[in-house]
Amino acid sequence: MPEDIIPAQPVPVVVSTQTTVSRNGSKKPLLIAIAILIVSICLLCIGGYLFILTQSNLNPNKNNSAAVPVGTKICSGVKIVFFSGGSESDAFARTVYNGARAAELALGPSVNYLWSDWNSDTIITQFKTAISQSPDAIAVMGHPGADALSPLVDEAEKKGIIVTMQNVDISTIREKYVSNGFGYVGQELISSGKTLAEGTIRKHNLKAGDEVLVIAGGFVNGQPTTRTDRPYAVRDAFKTAGLKVDFEPQGVDININAESDASIAETVALIKKYPNIKALVLDGGSMTAAAPIYLNQAGIKPGELIVAGFDLSTETVKGIKNGYVSLVSDQQPYLQGFLPILQTCLTKKYGFSGLYVDTGIGLIDSSNVDQVASLAKQGIR
User: 0.85 cut: is pTM over it?
Assistant: First the structure.
C-alpha cells in the first residue's frame, strides 16, 4: 500500500441501551440508532470503494502489456536448457533436477535437462550443442572453469541466449554479463569449505596440533579446478587453527562412483594411511553418503572418528543418526534447480539482471537433522 494513501476508517457506532418512550409512544432513540447504523454502513462502502479506486489508479501494472493474464504461467513459451550435474542415479543431481522440474511446472517453460556425470569435457560438449539449438536460455554448471567456458558464454551471448550458472560459480564471467541476466545459485565454494572446517573445530573442540585428513575431490589429471577451491578452503581453515592437515587430492571419479569397489578400496587405504587422525573430511556428497561403508571397511566404529562432509541425502541422514557422520554442509541443491529457472524466466520476460544466491551456509548434525530428514527423503533437501 502506498504510504500516502490512508484507507477509509470505520465510523464508530454507539447504540444506546436506554430506551425511553415518547409522548406518542414511539421509541425515538432506537430509531435514531438504527439510522446511524445504516448511514455508517453506507459511509464504509463509499470509503472502501474510493480506496479501491485510488489504489487501482496508482497500480503500476494497470494497462501494462507486460502483466501476465490471469491463468497464464509467467514463463510460458520460453525454452531453457538446464544442466542437472551428475547422473540420474546421483542423489545430489536428482535433487537439483527436482528443483528445476518444480520450477518448470510452476512457471511453464519448456526445459531440456542434461546429465554430465560431473565431467567437464561432457559439459563443454553439451554446452556447444545447446548453443547450436538457440534456446532462450542455458543454465550451466561451472566445473570446466573460466578458460573453457568463457568463449562459449561469449558465443551464446552474441546469439542473444541468456546464460546463468548453478553449483559452481565463475565470477569473472558472471560479472561480465550480470546485466544480461547471468546470475549464480549455489554455494560460495571458499566460504562453504571454511564454514565446515570451523564448524568441525567448534563442535569437537579440536586443538592446535590435532591431525585431520581431507580427501579432496574434483581434480582433473591431478590438477586443481574451480571446483577444488572448496577442499583447499577446508585445508586452509584447519591450518589457520593450528591443526596438522593431511591433504589427499583425488579425481572426480572417487566421488561420482563413491560406492564402487575401486573408490571404497582407495578411500579406505587413505584412512588407514593416517592412523592418528582425529577428523576426516570427505569432499563430496556421494563420498559423505558412503562414509559408513568406508569406516566399516576400515574397522572404525561410529563415534571413533569425527567425519565431516558435504551435501544432504537420505543415506547421509542415516549416517548422522547412526553416528558415522558428525557434521554436513548443506548447499540446498533443490534451490540450485528451482532458482536458475526462475532467474532466466524473469530475465527473458522482464529484462531483470542476474541474481546471486549463496545456498551453502547451513550445517546439519544430530541436533537438527530430524528437521530436514523427511525433506531429504522427498528429494527436496
Answer: no
